[in-house]
Structure formats: structure tokens, C-alpha cells
Amino acid sequence: MNTTCRGFDTKLIHAGEPLPRIQGAVTVPIFQSATFEQTGDTNDPVLFYIRLNNTPNHQALHQKLAALENAESALVTASGMAAISTTLLTVLSSGDHLLAQEGLYGGTHGLLTDECPAFGLKVDWIDAGNPGSWEEKVRPATRAIYVETMTNPLLQVADLPAVVEFARAHQLVSIIDNTFATPVNFRPPEIGFDLSLHSCTKYMNGHDDLAAGAIIGRSKWIERITRRLNRLGGSLDPHAVFLLDRGLKTLGVRVRQQNESAMRIARFLEDHPAVARVNYPGLESHPQHSRARKLFEGFGGTLSFDLVGGAAAADRLAASARLAISAPSLGGVDTLIMRPAVVSHRNLTRQERERIGIGDGLVRFSVGLETPDDLINDLEQALRA
User: What is the average pLDDT score of the chain?
Assistant: First the structure.
């Protein structure tokens, strides 16, 4: 990496870029080739092959991603779930046990509850904000602990330093999904996490036009995960790599604006009589606000809120919004609105949703790059409906 890449935004633009530039191209060209000619040079044994995620596009992006979180290595995958599943299937073996935070993203929850048992993997759920309760869940077969920086969709903030300390004390692999925070707001390797995962479909790309994932962290684990990924086949196409690399270059300016806009919108909603509760760690009313202030440089661009009128009110709100688009996903330039009970967490039973606090009237709101006043005015007229 260019040694002048010290500032975060400079890393976004220049980290991982090949020097000298390929044929002088300022942007890394798309190497849309499934395979590459072997020269027979025994001093260069690298086999470039698209399924191995090691084309020149992949290599440049891996270096950039590692630099953004000040980590040793990185790897991209075909989706965020590919990053999560491949990581867990590498770190854990049949008979192993995982400690996982209660209230995870619905796709991750489904993987752990529905798929992992078929691989002989056992899971216990923990209150990630109460370190004193974790010890009783540890077994001789426990191998890893898994949390999210900010949970999806309730924006809970775990005691992340305690997770790292607990993992070290029990020789566990510490894994965190950092999608909601992004490296702009939080860099898990800096406080000692072994592996940081991202759904790059969201903020990292930021334009709602690709699916991708990333695994960032210690080289010894990235090497093992890469070998497993090469066999499972969750590779990312070079054109998607190019788009993700391009999207990353504006990550800093996008996320900082989304941080500011989300804070303004959260304060507006907190004062609105139609809103029962707002979940956003930037608010002083958030139960983990003081923890979030110590850990994060910003509080992210996604918030959620419960409506007084429940599911019917939430559906009317989504239908009445003129700027916010009713759609899944988050983190893009467009503001998106959806109801987790029927989208991201629809596969959980009602009892499971109620236990973790996802009611039928909960709305998740991903703030885009529109003018904040316009978004607030749009919400105001939609809430009147």
C-alpha cells in the first residue's frame, strides 16, 4: 500500500490501487476473465482463477478493505450471508459450540437455528450487554462468540470491549458483523476483534446495485476462510468487485452525511405523538447511548421506531411515504422503509420476535442522501396518514 495513505478518506481512494498504474488507468480496469494464462515462470506460482477470488480486481479490493479497518487481511464474497456462513463453517466444526448475541439479523438467526444443527453445531444465545451472564453459557466445546456492532433492526449496542476480553480469556474467536457501523464509525480490529464481517450490499457499496460481502481480520483466519470459500464457491464476480471498489471511494462522505441526517430524523420522531419509541444509539434516551459515544465516531444511518398504531399504522406510513421507498436492504443513497416483522425477521415466530422486541408496528428506516428537511417533511405527512 502507498505509505502516504494515512487518513481514512485517502485510504478509500488510494489503498490497494496497483502501482505503477495498469496502462496508466486511474481506475483499476475490470479484469472480466474467468482464467489467466500461466507463463511457466516457477518464481510466480500464483494461479489467477475467478473462483479463487484472486483476480487483479480482487487483490486490489482486499488490500483496500484491510486498510480501512487497520487489519491484516481481507476477503470478499458473493454476499453478506456468504461471508457469515463461510466464516462460521471455517471457525466451527461438528460438535463445536457458539455463543451468539440475542436479536441478530433475521438471516443470521435463521442460519444459526435452522442450518447449523445439520452441521452438528450448537448455539446458545447471550445478552451481549450483560457480560456477567456469559460465563454460565460457556462449554468445553465453545469455540467462538458472535455479535453485531449495532443489532438489526433494534440498534442495540453490545459491550464490545468486554466481548473481546471474554474471548481472549476463554480462547474463543471473536466475530462481529460491522455492517451497520461501517469502518467510518467503528473499526473492530482496532479493539481486538479477530474477524469483522460486512454485507457490502449495504453501506460499503452504497448504491443498491450489487450483492457482496467481506471478511476482514487476522491473516491466519482469512487464509483458512479463503480455502473454505474456494471450495464452497461463494466468489464475487470481477465486475461486482469493480462496482464495490468504486462505491467504497465515497463511503466516508456518504456515511458522515447519513450519520447527521439520521440524528436529525431520530430527534424529530422522538418528539412525534404517533411514535411510541425510537431506536437510535445517538439519542440520549437510548439505553446504550453512553457506550456508543465511547465506541463510535458516528451512530450510523439506520434507525427504527415503533408506531402507536401498530402494524396497520406502519403499513399506512410506508404506503404514504413519497420519498422513502418501501423496500428491503439498507445503506444506499435512496431512503428505504420497511417492517422487519414481515421482511427481515419474517421467518421468526411471533414469540421469538416478541422476545427480542420486534413488534408488528416496528419500522426500520434507512436514511439515504436526500436533503434531511425533505425526508422529515415526508415523514411528517406520512405520519398524519
Answer: 94
